[in-house]
Amino acid sequence: MSTYAQSARPRWNDRVPRKARIEVGILGATGAVGQQFASLLATHPWFRATWLAASNRSVGKRYRELAWHLPVACPSDVAEIPVETPKAGRGPKLIFSALDSSVAGEAEEEFAAAGHCVVSNARNHRMDALVPLLVPEINPKHLGLLAHQREFKGWCGTITTNPNCSTVFLAMTLAALRPLRPRRVLVTTLQALSGAGYPGVSSLDATANIVPFIHGEEEKIESETKKILGLLSNHSVTPASLVISAQATRVPVLYGHTETVSVECEEETSPEDVLAAFRAFSGEPQRLHLPSAPRRPIVCLDDLDRPQP
Question: Which of 51, 92, 199, 305: CA 20 to 30 A from 258?
Fold first, then answer.
């Protein structure tokens, strides 16, 4: 039995005229993650990127004039936009942050204080008790924390974070198994080179090799997963009580992380029970037919040699 968390396949049933879409900005727009934001937003039916910000060495240049790291071309929608200084108070209300963690913490707080709604890819605020660590299929109710940010932090805006890459699909499968009451989890990740960012892992380290350590990755998987699966109570999240032990490795695969996971449940569980739970799993994005939500968050494969990156 094998499973994988399906990548989002866009459905553009709700396309609206470009001028009517919600304007968004991208912090750290010139890095690999920022360019992924730009690429995905270019074809999104509800949003359009109108403001790009990055470090001083890129300021003043048009987006197309800067080094492009993705295998797809720079989107024409943003190619002519000049890159600006990441100054809080400028740009649209909704901001996607692809800033490096070395600068993201303070910068994102400044934008939130200035009234922006920041959606962050950085790790800095993920474990903040008042910041949602969101996987929409699992814990949309954690967005209730946003009101408490204004109350306790004094921000006019908000910060919402997404999890570490390997945490996302581990949490997704464990959420699907909630009816079976999982209590102990062993996970080994086989993470692709793309997860190390750009320029990433040295070719001499990565070629025909497995690196059995990724700094900070195991701790993030263990702590973030329990927060995502936790329960919102008043102005905090009580982490899930299950025990998670993670081992992270880097493998010579370009894109596509893989995990091997062993789960012990409260009661005896059959493979058929697990498959039924996976196939029945769905969430709020599917109920609302959000345009970039996969129809099925988890796909089960019968082939014994699948999934493969």
Answer: 199
